[in-house]
Design a protein that fits this description.
Layout: E1 2-5, E2 16-19, E3 29-37, H1 41-46, E4 64-72, E5 84-88, E6 97-101, E7 105-107, H2 114-118, H3 121-134, E8 142-145, H4 151-163, E9 166-171, H5 174-182, E10 187-190, H6 196-203, E11 211-214, H7 221-226, E12 233-236
Parallel strand pairs: 8-9, 8-11, 9-10, 11-12
Antiparallel strand pairs: 1-2, 3-4, 3-6, 4-5, 5-7
Helix pairs in contact: 3-4
Length: 251
């Protein structure tokens, strides 16, 4: 098998492509021939030792994949060799073979391509946990999504609309906002050309959003937080901006 390896902390161009022995499953494990792997923002952080998960060197990055089962270990009954599957791993997806615990492997739905399936678990898993479990968004409520054109942002828009909420998407360009509307956003805000607080106020008749989904951080966090509805929920998803915002505690 071939694998992309991180042998020392650094940027993506420091990774190497190496030939390694083929994998063998242990008890409760599944070996998968990888057809596609999702690339996510945490992958770039992990290889630079800037993420909360810190694997031992060397390792193959990549946390999600889609492929075909090559072999299964003892006790694995829900998938078999030849099955198309999706898997979520801590690391190891950037390789021609990957090994995963059986509980992290699910059959791939029919009619879906490997590349689409490979990009599903992290973005939609993150956004479903945030919007449904933590934000408890309900039909008829309003959710504001910052950084809405990114992977988790688009997933949040779709999940919010599936729940029956009104979704306002905020992003940095009109092109990005057009993509957000294609994914179901009811209204949009360009926060580089518009006043974020004033637009939120106008779009919510002064009430503010019930849920704010923030994967960005930085300078837009505080004005968004100041605009939140009574008993609103602010979801801190990540800091793609690079800056962890400091919110005045009196708010």
């Amino acid at each position: 098998m071939k694998a992309v390896l991180c042998k020392a902390w650094g940027p993506p161009d420091s990774l190497s492509l190496e030939t390694l022995p083929d994998l063998t499953p242990g008890d409760g494990e599944v070996v998968i021939d990888v057809k596609a792997a999702g690339v996510n923002f945490p992958d770039v952080l992990i290889i630079q030792n800037k993420y909360q998960a810190k694997p031992e060197l060397p390792f193959s990055p990549g946390s999600e994949l889609a492929g075909v089962v090559n072999a299964v270990g003892a006790g694995v009954t829900h998938v078999k060799p030849g099955d198309k599957v999706i898997a979520y791993l801590g690391n190891g997806a950037f390789a021609t073979q990957a090994k995963a615990p059986a509980k992290a492997v699910v059959p791939m739905p029919p009619g879906i391509d490997f590349d689409v399936a490979a990009a599903f678990t992290l973005t939609y898993g993150t956004s479903h946990h945030a919007v449904v479990d933590r934000g408890e968004l309900k039909a008829g409520e309003t959710m504001l999504v910052l950084g809405a054109a990114g992977g988790v942002g688009l997933a949040a828009i779709e999940i919010g609309k599936a729940i029956g909420a009104r979704v306002i998407a905020a992003a940095s360009t009109d092109e990005k906002l057009a993509v957000c509307k294609e994914h179901g956003a009811d209204a949009v805000i360009n926060y580089t050309t518009e006043d974020l607080r004033e637009r939120i106020k106008a779009l919510t008749d002064g009430k503010g959003p019930d849920v704010i989904y923030d994967p960005v951080g930085g300078i837009y966090a505080e004005p968004a937080f100041r605009s939140i509805a009574w008993r609103g929920r602010y979801l801190v998803v990540g800091f793609a901006n690079g800056e962890i915002p400091k919110i005045p505690l009196n708010l």
